[in-house]
Amino acid sequence: MTSGKVSVLDIKGLTKTYGAVTAVDNVDLHIDHGEILGLIGPNGSGKSTFFDCSTGLATPDSGSVSLEGSDITNWSLNRIAREGRMLRSFQKTVVFKKLDVEENLVIAGQMFTFPSVLSTFSVGKRSRMRIEGLRKHARELIELTGLGPVAHMAAGNLSGGQQKLIQFASMLMPDPRLIMLDEPMAGINPKLVERVIDTIRYANREMGVSFLIIEHNIDVVTSLCSRAIVLDQGRKLCEGTPAEVIANKQVREAYLGG
Amino acid sequence: MNNTPLSTTASDPKRRNLRAPIVIALAVVALGAPMVLGTYAVHAMVIALIFLLPAHGLNLLVGYTGMLSLAQAAFFGLGAYASALMSIHLGTSFPVNMLAAIALACVIAVPLGIPALRLRDTSFVMCTLGFVIIGQAISKNWISVTRGDMGLNNIDKPTVGLAGYSWTASNPVEAYYLALVLAAFATWVFWLVVRSPAGRNLVAIRENETLAESLGIPTWNYRLAAFVIAAGFGGAGGSLYVHYISVASPLMFQTLYTTTMLIIVLGGGAGSITGVIFGSFLFVALSEGLRIAPELRMIAYGLSLLILVFRFPQGFAPFLMRIWDWAGGVDKKEGSA
Amino acid sequence: MADNITLSLRDVRSGYAALDIINGVSLDIPQGEFVALMGPNGAGKSTLLKTIFGMTTFKGGEINWQGRQIGGLATRAVLGSGISYVPQGRCNFPLMTVQENLEMAAYTIRDPQVKADRDYIYELFPSLLKRRATLAGNMSGGEQQLLEVAMAVLQRPKMLLVDEPSVGLSPAAVGIVFDELLRLRDTGLTILLVEQNTRKAMEVADRAVILRLGEVIWDGKPADITHDELGELFLTGKMRAELAHNEKLSQ
Amino acid sequence: QDADIKIGLVSPNSGANARYGSFAQRGAALAAKEINEAGGIDGRMIEIFPADSVCTPVEGVSATQRLINQNEVDFIIGDICSSVTLAMQPLVEDAKVVLVNAASSNPQITYQAGVGGYKYSFRNYPTDEVRALSIAKYAAEKGLTKLAVLSVDSDYGRGAIDFTKKYIDDLGVTLVSEDYYKEGEVDFRSVLTKVRKSDAQAILMYGLADTTPIIARQMIEAGLAGKLPLLGNGEFSAAATIEAAPKAMDGAIEAAAWLPAYDSEGSKAFVAAYEAAYDGEEPNNHAYGHWETLHLLAQAIDDADSIDADAVVAALEAISFESPMGTITFDDHHQAIRPLLLLEIEDNAPVVTGSVTGAVTYADN
Amino acid sequence: MYFLLEQILNGVSSGAVYAIVAVGMTMIFGVMRAINFAHGEYYMIGTFGGWYATSALGLPYPAAILFGVAVTIVIAYVIGKFVMQRMIGAPVEASVVATLGVSLVLQNTAILIFGGSYKFFSAGYIEPVFFGDVGIAQQRLLIILVCILVFLGLELMVGFTRMGKTIRAVSQNIEACEVVGIDVKKVVMTTFILGTALAGFSGILTAPVNVSVYGGMGEIITFKTLPIIVMGGLGNVRGTLAAAMILGIAESLVAGHFGLQYRDSVGFITLILMLLWRPHGLFSSRARF
Ligand SMILES: Nc1ncnc2c1ncn2[C@@H]1O[C@H](COP(=O)(O)OP(=O)(O)OP(=O)(O)O)[C@@H](O)[C@H]1O
Ligand SMILES: Nc1ncnc2c1ncn2[C@@H]1O[C@H](COP(=O)(O)OP(=O)(O)OP(=O)(O)O)[C@@H](O)[C@H]1O
Ligand SMILES: CC(C)C[C@H](N)C(=O)O
Ligand SMILES: [Mg+2]
Ligand SMILES: [Mg+2]
Q1: Chain A interface test: which of B64, B188, B211 (most A C-beta within 10 Å)
Q2: Does the distance separating the beta carbons of B333 and C17 come in below 8 Å?
Q3: Where is coiled-coil annotated (chain A) (predicted)?
Q4: Angle at E164 (CA atoms; ends E160, E167), nearest 5 degrees
Q5: C179: containing domain
Q6: What residues form DSSP beta bridges with A180?
Q7: How many domains does chain C have?
Q8: In a domain, B174, yes or no
């Protein structure tokens, strides 16, 4: 589609049905290097299912997913994360409830710091240093997301928004190539939303991370994304710059509510 | 030592730090106990130390990885039979038998674990209980090897030897020191495992497996690793047990053993090393202590379990943690229980 | 302002076990008022709603609801007195169908009207009607959010505590939900809404209350505060002086 | 005034075998009462220390340890379950405490006692070896040559069948099927149906007392009652068993160490005393066995004139104890030479049809 | 051929017993999210009640059934009040330890009161009726009939009544129950009593054919029941019936063709095989992550 270069993620003909419902219906999508792509659509239009099918949480009925040109369609969730360095967050807020915020983040970084499962069993100096490094990085992210005062509280005891922020920070712990966020701003206070937006921009620009973001907050989509795709009833309704998309009549009807 | 990291707590410099004295006192008690206690009490302590080995394994599964496995008793039995058979037929010595028991338990854990680990929650519990029942059926019915219900008896007392010099733990006091050394070593190994980054990954799996997956943790591999390591601990316990008690029988696969291990871990405090150590002594002591009233023994034991659950729903670990904090002069604000 | 106060909090303190979260909140809500409760993440908004609904450790103060003390009462008693609650995050019966969830919602009500109420809900949210035989847990996040709002409405409360109903909803759905809340307000329902979507909240609410670190730091009409001021308040809590000033004025 | 003589009694008091423990304790307690009321042993009273083995070796070993080290008992009687007894043997040997077993029938126990090894272990109970031979012989004599095995899946049930196999070829008896049930089993329908379809002439059963009435009643259900007799051991003669299923028990043949109906003065007196002491409960052979064994031990202590273990061992080795069952002596493996009764149920009551003296030949073991 | 038929019939009759016990356990699992390790003990209590009624009070068998169930309910009420209600929302580990404790207490109290020895139950209708060459005791026909009735009743209750729906609700989300005003404690209590009463009932029903009555009898039943409730899909009434029948018939065939000694492994081997095929049980639904 786009000029010569390989996309970070290239998805073709993704389809997933549950009984009579076709949650995702033959959707094509590609994300270019360094792009921040928005994915919007009415409730139940198949956005989260699209995420699930492209990250190995659910198996698509048909279609292919390729990351940097290699086919990852049947890879498992953990392999896509670890080897593909393609991370995703969940719409329903999930954290390691009994662990504190810092531990949550250290865990998020571990598999990207240790070369193998076996090496994680080591408690040697090298291993300790790796963990120290992760801890430092975690503390930076904790400051960045304003979780400092609760850094050592059990994550399960934090407020809804705070847990959402842990999820977001976890995505930045490794050095990912692509991050897929499912409604990262939901329940985050407006001031912090700005901060999260800045952080996404920073990661995008300075670290070269590409993003695919599901978000119902249209302001966020407009200010962050260079391009947006609209899903409706599992199908791609339209695609374009945020401004174009919002202007689309069908989108206004189906999504924005006139 | 608790898996749940502590909140940053400031210690009050004015108060005396009692941790070191407590540790020293415990060490003195552990080493000196047999000098003052009667043989019977020492025997009970040996049993507690032996049960600590499979309990560590179970704790790795229940407390750290979040898998309630009842198969520990199967590996315990497997280790016991393996050691007993080697001792009887090959005449090999205790250390060899124990290593073989550990190795065998680990090896068998792989083909058992692969199908079992597809399951979650209660299904997994039942599948592992199935292993115990099947283990029992094998030990009962494979008579040419196991002598069925007659069991294997007269197994050598544990002997450790180096280059012509050998020592046999022939009475409970000697067995106590042997068990103490082995239990301490096992605890150290266990501590290394749970403290390693892998240990942290196991906890992540316990807390939320799908989330762990999404963060690149190959949860299946870790769960299998935990299952295999736990089996090794179980096998080690069985080996020591059989050499100490000198009999192996299909009764080793009875629910009594499974239940005892479970109670030690859950009652002591899943996910806590000190809790489990405490649990193994407490519950063996309780079970033995209640012998003063034989008819009421099991009733009283059952009631103690109920009281325990109501009073310490998370086991003793949080309680021990508080003592430890207090000893360190730490005043913790938020209740992490 | 005094006589038609339906819910009145006096120096309410609460938290979780040994932990204190709400440190003395006082608030008077007249009947039929739509109050938006806002504040930074972790301010204690949800905790305050849960406190009213009897789901936290109550530590003191008074909660007066229609002349009755409900502070520290059990959840069911609070519910029975006419207060309904939509919690933050998922709270439905995931392995029951949408229809069954709606039936369970009206669990305490036994009259023929229930069916008509349900039909009304289906009319209001056609997407639920489409999914009536789907297991709630299999629906999309937004659809579940709608369901939960619907469940609370079906309880025919006199007061509604809603915690972030807009989360996960498409702009169109947010519109429908808020319109419905306004309609209910117009029928005399008192609403205490927690929102992070401050723009929307300020648009619909009669009154805005801002909570920070478990204390009310601002209380007034949405028109009296600009968006930027609001953001400033969230971050720093400044304007406390102003609040004190306001209080003096009102006395 | 010397101190009391302390005797430990290891038996299962909880779990699935609690029944046996209860009988054993009552039998022993009765004997202790009788001895004490008669003035004790040289004026020294007997005190019994019961300990629960739950029928598992680890519990049994713990219980034994406690008896030896905490209660400092002078002698131990126990256990009923062979697995526990086998585990206790090395323990009492180390502690030099005399153990007299009164109920475990695994031959191994005395293969390894006396000249076989353990100096301090004795058994005052017939072994499964003797029992298996006498039943097989008796069956052959009655023309019951095709037997279906239904035994308990334990050292006792299996052991008895193993020894049966050793002898049946010479006797012209064949086993048409072999089934073993687990302790606590309650559903025998499938097996009994299978037996009904086979050409078996009798059911060979070395079972647990508690299971016999269950099997018997299910034999009625399966239409086997009155067609195939039961053969073996499992308290066939107990009144409760017969009462539960008279139709099925009629014609049953058993080899038992003792039965309540045994016609001897001492035995009758025991039954009367036992029933008087325990609200009319009928004693079983373990109640008797433990009662008798305590009396036997008391005589040995009396003979030895001391509670010194070695002296009592010598006294036991030399003992000639007049029991209600006849004179009991021990062979060089510390195995009691004592009669085993053969009996048959006729008209709802056991009739003793013979008696075998259980001398074990150790040559081929 | 007849042999096979007869074995299957035997299997169905054991399956019917398993089913009644298991369905109670699975319902309790539904509301408590925890395995009730003491479930077999209520079966034991019911049997003891029935035995006491017939042998000590001289009541006829039908009255003994009522007596036994009543005793079970009284004891279940006490345990429910003091133990089970406190377990609501407690960690799973706590309920494991608690129910193991209850099991020890009940089992050994029975031994303490009645002595450890077996009692024999001699009431009931055990004479066989023959259909051609296939024989079956009248009592077993009764058991099968009762099982059918119990399951019809439960199926109706769970599917159509308010009570049934609340049971399902409690099993899915306790917080949501509070929000809609369901009295969780009461539901747990009612379910617990219903489940244990069914266990007690099936104990008395089986007593005539199983004959023995003793303190430890419950443990075996608990362990028979465990694979069934998992196979059936936890909390699933219909699945429990199917699984119980599969197990009953499989056991009967194995005992008839290979030997009784292999029978007790059958349940767990079937379970393991089935779980490999369907990791979430025969009939169970799971919501998406
Ligand atoms: N496991 C499942 N079983 C049945 N239906 C499912 C399942 N998963 C998703 N669906 C259906 O697929 C449709 C798409 O759901 P999805 O969660 O992808 O929507 P979404 O676009 O993320 O919506 P939202 O904005 O509300 O989060 C929904 O209607 C849902 O009911
Ligand atoms: N179950 C709990 N146990 C202990 N502390 C808790 C618990 N729930 C919340 N808290 C603490 O209470 C404080 C307030 O939480 P609350 O959920 O009320 O915040 P909130 O204002 O609703 O935030 P958000 O907008 O993010 O939902 C937080 O600091 C949190 O850590
Ligand atoms: C009670 C008896 C059947 C015990 C059996 N004699 C045994 O050796 O274990
Ligand atoms: Mg979604
Ligand atoms: Mg909140």
Answers
A1: B211
A2: no
A3: none
A4: 155
A5: 5-89+157-250
A6: A88, A212
A7: 1
A8: yes
User: Measured from the CB, is residue A150 less than 6 Å from ligand 2?
Assistant: yes
- Residue at C48 is within a domain: yes
Cβ C94–E287 below 8 Å, yes or no?
Answer: yes
Residues spanned by the domain of B220: 36-255
**Residue C16 near residue A157, CB atoms below 8 Å:** yes
Q: Which residues 6+ apart lie within 8 Å of A23 measured at CB?
A: A16, A17, A46, A49, A234
pTM tops 0.90, yes or no: no
The answer to whether position B120 is within a domain reads yes
A58: in domain: yes
User: Chain B closest CA to A82's CA: distance in Å?
Assistant: 4
Please, do chains A and D touch (3+ CB pairs < 8 Å)? no
Nearest C-alpha of chain B: how many angstroms from C22?
Answer: 15
Q: What is the CATH number of the domain that holds A145?
A: 3.40.50.300
User: Number of folded domains in chain A?
Assistant: 2
> Which pair of tokens denotes residue D165?
């196999």
Note whether residue A205 is domain-resident: no
Kindly state whether residues A67 and A95 are assigned to the same domain: no
The reply to whether A69 and A182 lie within a common domain is yes
| CB proximity E166 to C under 8 Å | yes
d(CA D90, CA B43): 15
Residue in the block written with tokens 């443990």: E219
How much helix, strand and coil, in percent to the nearest 5, is found in chain E?
A: 75, 5, 20
- Does residue B311 sit within a domain? no
Cβ neighbours of residue E122 under 8 Å, at least 6 residues apart? Answer: D217, D243, D244, E54, E55, E208, E211
**A98 assigned to some structural domain:** yes
Q: Which of E19, E79, E71 is nearest to E45 (CA)?
A: E71
Sheet containing D336-337: which strands, arranged edge to edge?
D321-323, D326-330, D336-337
User: How far apart are the C-alpha atoms of D235 and D282, rounded to whole Å?
Assistant: 12
B310–E271 CB contact, under 8 Å: no
Residues with CB under 6 A from ligand 1: A 18, 21, 23, 41, 43-49, 91; C 134, 138-143, 168; E 288
Instruction: CATH number of the domain at C80, please.
Output: 3.40.50.300
By the CB < 8 Å criterion, does A90 face chain E? Answer: yes
CA of A101 to the centre of ligand 2 (A): 14
C219 φ, ψ (degrees, to nearest 5): -150, 115
Are A120 and A158 contained in the same domain? yes
How do strand A21-31 and strand A36-40 relate by DSSP bridges? unpaired
Partners of E217 on chain D (C-beta within 8 Å) are 184, 186
Residue-by-residue pLDDT tens, chain D, 365 positions? 568 999 999 998 776 677 788 899 999 999 999 999 999 998 999 999 999 887 777 778 778 888 988 888 999 998 998 878 988 998 899 889 999 999 998 888 999 899 988 999 999 999 988 899 999 999 999 999 999 999 987 777 888 898 899 888 889 999 999 988 877 677 788 788 889 888 999 999 998 877 888 899 889 888 888 889 999 998 898 887 888 888 899 999 999 899 888 889 999 999 999 999 999 888 988 999 999 999 999 999 999 999 999 999 999 999 999 999 999 999 999 999 998 999 999 998 889 888 887 677 776 54
Residues A30 and A50 in one domain: yes
**Do D294 and D31 contact (CB within 8 A), yes or no?**
yes
Ligand nearest to the CA of C94: 1
Beta strand C190-194 pairing with C159-163: parallel
- Alpha carbon C145 to chain centroid distance? 14
Residues A127 and A228 in one domain: no
Q: What is the tally of structural domains in chain B?
A: 1
A244 within some domain: yes
Per DSSP, what are the bridge partners of residue B247? B153
In terms of residue numbers, what domain contains A113? 87-175
Q: Domain check: are A97 and A215 in the same one?
A: no
Q: Which residue's entry shows tokens 């592992």?
A: B128
User: What gap in Å lies between CA A203 and CA D79, rounded to an integer?
Assistant: 75
Assigned domain for C140 exists: no
